[in-house]
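ZP: hey, is the lysine complex queued? I don't see it on the tracker
AM: it wasn't, my bad. submitting now with these inputs:
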Amino acid sequence: MGDNFNDYFVYKDGKLYCEDVNIQNLASKIGTPFYIYSKKAIIDKINEYKEAFKDYPTLICYALKANSNLSILKIFEEHGLGADIVSGGELYKARKVGIPSNKIVYAGVGKTDVEIIYAINENILSFNVESQMELEVINEIAKRQNKKANISIRINPDVDPKTHPYISTGLKKSKFGIDIGQALDVYKQAVKMENLNVVGIHCHIGSQIMDVSVYKEAVEKTVDLVFKLKKEGIELQFIDIGGGLGVKYYPEDNPPTAFDLANTVLPIVKQTGLKLIIEPGRSLIAQAGALITKVIFTKDKKDKHFVIVDSGMNDLIRPSIYNAYHHIITVEEKQEKMVADIVGPICETGDFFGLDREIGKVNRGDLLAILTAGAYGSSMASNYNVRPKAIEILVDGDKFKIIKEREDYSFITKLEEEVL
Ligand SMILES: Cc1ncc(COP(=O)(O)O)c(C=O)c1O
Ligand SMILES: N[C@@H](CCCC[NH3+])C(=O)O
């Protein structure tokens, strides 16, 4: 039956495996729902990026927002990757697993004073500054701390990444970055600020990018500015082109590889002689993960069938907020098919994983695997409806490890109970 969706979740004798772990057997031991990740999938992707960029000095800063489970971060750390962070919490996690500060870059339009102080004290590689006011505040805080903060300006190149509007970040109308037309002036002010080291330039145009040609436009505009800065005597150390590479969600998707990205951007970046930073998130972790959930009930209305599962939008919110497609397969291969809405137990019509989907005919107790769920799955999970979050499992060959334990009700309500 059907081709395997990827190399890491494959059917063997009609049963779905993650690497060499039988998912059905695992579920009967640990319960559902759970996220399951293939360590090999993560390492293969790391190696693909390393190989693609090996001929040019490149620092790969993994974007923690995609998945910040500590055991997953540890894999990136062990392979020498840096971190792209967007909060004090992500800085804490990156440092917790031992990612060195001089490999950490920090973007985000709303860094608080507390977060800025923390990052300055950690001596991070660069703040990717997103407004004139932020620049002034970082300079002031650094002065108070008697330190110099490393900064890059995040420019907004006004390039359409041709992706979902909610995850397009490099268009003029979006909140991100400083307009490319104003950036030269901002740099001129930055180099005069006593407590800043101006070290780089940053740009990130969006996520789930399937057409690498959009990077060409963004990087050309960025490099053009690098040369203008040079003329003004402003010399940088690196150019950071962000993340954004797309992944396979639909079976027919053919996403670009790290090699496609490297072939597109390196010829342009090379002209500057600057070091390169890239910030992939999704493309390093998405396909490594699946969300495993159990069918609680099936329900047949006139001309409409529902499969109601024990995970919901609180575990994986992408279908609800972007109408995102995740491919869904049965953990046990089924000959007979059905068309149904796969929905969660949450009190929202938007609580679905797939609508009008053809899947194997399932019954109460059967398991489903929601694929390409390694990125922006667990990291966006919540306790909505006071639901414990899905636990997380890391598979390595025929071994598995629980890398996030199941919450119980008292854990979820602890901080409220303490003040009751
Ligand atoms: C500044 C920045 N860098 C990197 C990323 C990672 O993007 P992706 O997960 O699409 O690779 C994001 C998220 O889009 C981001 O906002
Ligand atoms: N959360 C988004 C991606 C956001 C990208 C962050 N800048 C997703 O699930 O696709």
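AM: back. DSSP finds twelve helices and 21 strands in the chain.
ZP: great, adding it to the tracker
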